[in-house]
């Protein structure tokens, strides 16, 4: 037999007991041809365009799932940032566009649709402002729409006016979805250096440099890495890195195969393969558990940043070898609510917001799915965003903030979102004010790192 | 284009008639066995077959369902997966 029985059983074990999955097949669709001054016509164009490309997405991915016996958990769509394509609309309220996206997502049978987005790192156009102002109502009146705003890049610096505005938008979104613990905020991301081909939600959008339609695939498997690391007998850190690299390689190959087959069957271009260790609430399918497997008593203690740096780098190296088109975020995610080990670490008192912030300087994303008390001021949220954006800007990497100031909650409460979003312990923030700093507005200029030409 | 060869794995508690039952269903669907290996791993009966499907419009999902039902009747877990799933992961 060409493939050894042990290898066959290894693959089967990864899927059946270690939660290896293709987390998402995300179809990116350009809406650049949809613009129209009349918002009703525009919405119709958007709907038709999405359905034209995405009508067979779910059926095709299900066929591939059965063919290979590898679960494909989510099917998603990302579209051109709506702020760009709706710029020419006469209307200022873009909520109906979000509702159109929601309807298209529902009819196509996908789980999420991303791209209710704006890119405002250096300033805002009227269309950008219309979109940002529409976010709270858009997220409160839709189920599947995800929104993101890029407020900083290494090349442009940080748009602090936008940072200040996003603090208010996040508060308002939480308030408008307070019947569901502020779940609207779980679908809203503020970015620095947002990738244009990321298949993961809530931050996915279809960048302006992308083709008309593209398939991007996100693979996950913290459980597989966790059990591989735990099976090592008294390893050195070098052994651990080597083990993670090899495991990441295998997982990535699986994603590459699925992505190419999906693109071929749908007759669209294959974009990128994003290998990100995205945890789920399942026991063991946890990034925190991997860090603890390396020898930390509890995630968040001293040494956590170093362990995460090792993990993130080894994942990238294994992924880069396995696929010729690695992109998106590709690294380790540390969303608190979605990771059973992170939740436990917070409850034990070993993991704080400040430590999470430090960890984001060495992993692929940012402060993700973190609940803070309902009375947290918008300027404090803006200041949390500003810190995170600064890390991204200076280190030339993507960072993001997805915080939920869950209304009427206090430190220690648990908020339930359900499904992949999990449940979040409300974490304390600093009580000293950042009000004056945030209210100054303007821009933090592009850093010296931007002068590369 | 994906391969026309499939890996069929049968895992469960050993008993009389597993091989006979599984291969009978395969014969009904005209699925040819290219290679077969059988072992006991962690006290579990483990059979791995490499099978070839020659028909142009083979109904894979019907075959998968029939195999899975047969497995349930025999008290074992049966998976039918395209060979590429393993080839991609373990071979460059």
From TrEMBL, chain A:
- State the CDD domains in the record: RNR_PFL_like_DUF711 (cd08025)
Which domain of life does the protein's organism represent?
Archaea
Q: Name one Pfam family in it.
A: DUF711
Could you tell me which Gene3D superfamilies the record lists for this protein? Answer: 3.20.70.20
Q: What's this protein's family per the entry? A: Belongs to the UPF0210 family.
PANTHER family xrefs: UPF0210 PROTEIN MJ1665, UPF0210 PROTEIN SPR0218
**Listed NCBIfam families:** PRK05313.1 (NF003700)
Output this protein's name.
UPF0210 protein SAMN04488589_2805
- Organism the protein comes from: Methanolobus vulcani
- Print the organism lineage: Archaea, Methanobacteriati, Methanobacteriota, Stenosarchaea group, Methanomicrobia
Automatic annotation (TrEMBL), chain B:
Superkingdom of origin: Archaea
Instruction: State one Pfam family annotation.
Output: ACT_6
Q: What is the lineage of its organism?
A: Archaea, Methanobacteriati, Methanobacteriota, Stenosarchaea group, Methanomicrobia
Q: What is this protein called?
A: UPF0237 protein SAMN04488589_2806
Per its UniProt record, what PROSITE patterns does this chain match? ACT
Question: Which organism is the protein's source?
Answer: Methanolobus vulcani
The record places domain ACT at 7-85
What NCBIfam families does UniProt report for this protein, alphabetically?
PRK00194.1
Q: Which family does it belong to?
A: Belongs to the UPF0237 family.
